[in-house]
Design a protein that fits this description.
about 200 residues; 6-stranded mixed beta sheet; alpha/beta; 4 helices
């Protein structure tokens, strides 16, 4: 477990690419990136995610990106888990006293951009999803339809389904409005940074 910058993250992605692809292809899909929060205090890191992002935007790499970790039910092989260290005590209508910070959100988007570039995957809902989205199988993978556990099916996992303004106690975005969900925002920011860094989407 060590702090890295975006260049080091990209280097690890390049080094891990072949193994990641083989694991993903064995499951009939491309490499995917799943976005989480820890539901724990700022500054607490977990080895079940490849990347932990702290309140100040620092990036903690806990394992090589081709290692299979236990971050997303039934979807760990050939996927990468990114998490924000935040949302201790959050509920579906209250982010708790440690919501995602702007630094965390921007850093997660930058990480998405770097990984998309290194792994040759687009930033879309088939490849980059929040835990809330993948728990409801929003990438359309039919083999998982019998085990849905996201906001539309009991809401046991709803990470980043909605983002909050840290200066406001209420959600800024309606979690069921497709144009303003956390995943839509993070993918949009990821594509912005990909264009900014590399000149293309």
């Amino acid at each position: 477990m060590r702090e890295v910058d975006l260049t080091e993250l990209m280097d690890n992605a390049y080094a891990s690419k072949w193994n990641l692809q083989q694991k993903a292809y064995a499951n009939g899909r491309d490499v995917q990136i799943f976005l989480h929060w820890t539901a724990c205090p700022y500054g607490r890191y977990y080895g079940s995610y490849h990347v932990n992002i702290d309140y100040d935007g620092s990036i903690i790499l806990t394992a090589d990106l081709d290692e299979t970790l236990s971050h997303t039910y039934m979807r760990n092989s050939g996927s990468i888990g990114l998490t924000l260290c935040c949302c201790y005590g959050a509920t579906t209508d209250d982010p708790g006293d440690q919501p995602p910070t702007q630094e965390q959100i921007e850093t997660m988007a930058k990480c998405i951009a770097v990984l998309s570039e290194a792994l040759d995957i687009p930033i879309d809902k088939q490849h980059v999803l929040t835990h809330g989205e993948i728990a409801d199988c929003e990438d359309g993978s039919p083999e998982y339809f019998d085990g849905l556990y996201g906001p539309k099916n009991g809401a046991t996992r709803w990470d980043l389904e909605v983002l909050w303004d840290k200066n406001d106690e209420s959600p800024v975005f309606n979690p069921y409005d497709e144009e303003h969900r956390g995943g839509t925002i993070l993918r949009g920011k990821g594509n912005y940074y990909k264009y900014k860094f590399y000149g293309h989407y």
